[in-house]
Amino acid sequence: GLPGQPQLGLGRGILARYVEHELARNKLGYVARFAELDFGSGENAGPGNPDTLPAVFELPLPGGVVRLRGSVDRVDEGPLGLEVVDFKTGSARTTAEIKDGRAFQLPVYLAAVSRLTGSPPGGICYLLLPAEKELKLKEALKSRGKVEVEPALLVGKLLPERLSRLLGALEQGVFLHLPFAKESACNGCDFAAACALRPTVAADRRARLKAGELGVSAYLPESAARSAE
After folding, report:
1. What angle do CA 46, 52, 54 make, to 5 degrees?
2. Is the separation of the CB atoms in 150 and 159 below 8 Å?
3. Of 60, 117, 121, 142, which is least surrounded by CB within 10 A?
């Protein structure tokens, strides 16, 4: 809360630190445009949920569309355009994962809100909110202060191409386990018990992928595609 627990050496509360962080960000030209932006749930906007769109959002792609529903923690309007801000109390996706095509959630949200509002994509941020440490804003498209992926390139070219490849694979019945990752990548999957992925199965698919037996329709991140060549 506000006072924190200074007697325990924990300093001011997380709410007080969050407010200070937001005021400092406002001075840099950032303002919140949407908070808890929800789309595709079927609910209409109301006093308790003003930033709500009942309809599923359709994002056009080369050769088709992808229909989206979800909830975005916050969308800020900044000097360079819209920034999607994701609140995190734990770990966040890395810049490398987004650049490589292994993390889709926030790039898809950025593409959706940019198209919805007509404002240019400005970036993706994780707001890290540890209970007992300093708040930190992690810019997900930058590494060591250097822009690794331009937001306009990600939203306008890379993301549509990747999603189109995924849709093409699904249309052809290609449902890969993640052969480019360890078996732990499936830990959060709701279908893991029915799927019964085993290390031997994953190893076999990696071998078949390298041999070209899985066909060109399979989607792979850029680093995995290079290693499979």
Report:
1. 100
2. no
3. 60
Q: Which amino acid is at 69?
A: R
- CA pseudo-torsion sign 158, 160, 165, 169: positive
Does the predicted TM-score (pTM) go above 0.70? yes
Q: Tell the burial category of 142 from Cβ atoms under 10 Å away from its Cβ (0-12, 13-18, 19+).
A: middle
Spatial neighbors of 84 by CB under 8 A, at least 6 apart, are 72, 74, 75, 106, 109, 110, 113, 123, 124, 125
Residue tagged 């400005």 (tokens): 122
Residue 166's Cβ-side half-sphere holds a number of Cα atoms within 13 Å equal to 16
- H helices present in 13-123, as ranges: 14-27, 95-100, 105-117
- Write down the H helix ranges in the chain: 14-27, 95-100, 105-117, 151-153, 159-171, 192-195, 199-210, 222-228
3-state helix, strand, coil split of the chain in percent (to 5) is: 35, 25, 40
Give whole-number Cα distances, 159 to 30, 104, 107, 162, in Å: 25, 8, 7, 5
One-letter amino acid at 66 equals: V
CB atoms within 10 A of CB 212: 10
